[in-house]
Amino acid sequence: MPPLPSYGYGREHPGPRYGSLIHGQNLKDVVITGHNGTINGQGQTWWKKYRQKLLNNTRGPLVQIMWSSDIVITNITLRDSPFWTLHPYDCKNVTIRNVTILAPIFEAPNTDGIDPDSCEDMVIEDCYISVGDDGIAIKSGWDQYGIAYGRPSTNILIRNLVVRSMVSAGISIGSEMSGGVSHVTVENLLVWGSRRAVRIKTAPGRGGYVKHITYRNLTFDNVRVGIVIKTDYNEHPDEGYDRKALPVLEDISFTSVHGQGVRVPVRIHGSEEIPVRNVTFRDMSVGITYKKKHIFQCAFVEGRVIGTIFPAPCENLDRYDEQEQLVKRSSSQNITDIDYDF
């Protein structure tokens, strides 16, 4: 199969990717459903060959739908995908509901659950995902290829999910987000037994933007790092990317965040090149396992905290009371307090 247009390069090798078990393109009004029956990708063979470097092309997703609209995927179990499990690419009006996605939590490389890629008008709800990479990863193209294709992911609602990811994150945006990602709402999410809960990742060379992102009613249970924003995820398809293509990160809010057994509740790692702007925290109380400092970590971030939150926020953020009256202005948004030792 030809490579995806947004990448112009296979994710793992130059050129084409292997076909998917279920593949469709230029479809309209299609339903995949089935009394919670299982589609088994039997990915073990693929993972082994990938580790042994025996594959000449990028592995294919288990289910891949491209350039399509009015798609419903519901009441099925998808397991052991060779690569990403469910990949809607450049699609519009997609509903994914009551889907269970499973893969081993270790040694099942790149088995993301759902990867909305340059998609518009999408709902993902009432799903259980436990996989060997990101539970959900919203994407829109990789460096210069994504910038050229220019198709954002926008208007995506994710709600009522239980997710586990011991290798990556429960819900990620990026790192391939060069076409832009905006107007994403994540609500009623439980992330348990995971390395990270929610993450935004990007790098110089990506271009594009991540903005108007709303997280609401998040619960973290035994998670190493809760909220992550990372701007130095330097993985590039080739040397042809523009190092001056800097992404914009702004208008990101976190409301009603709770949990227990979390080591680092927040790590927002902006940079001088890519500051993180207009971040809001409200109603946050996360039980922590690491009692020293470095538990609410910030660098090059500007925003606000409304009301009382626990643990105490970093000094980069303005403080407001519950009535949204300014209490204390931040002395500097550029204070850097990032600790990757844990």
Automatic annotation (TrEMBL):
One of its GO terms (molecular function) is polygalacturonase activity. Its main location: secreted. The keyword Ribosomal protein does not apply. It is found in: Secreted, Cell wall. Keywords: Cell wall, Glycosidase, Hydrolase, Secreted. Pfam families: Glyco_hydro_28. GO terms for biological process: carbohydrate metabolic process. SMART domains: PbH1. Belongs to the glycosyl hydrolase 28 family. This is Polygalacturonase. It comes from Quercus suber. The lineage of its organism: Eukaryota, Viridiplantae, Streptophyta, Embryophyta, Tracheophyta.
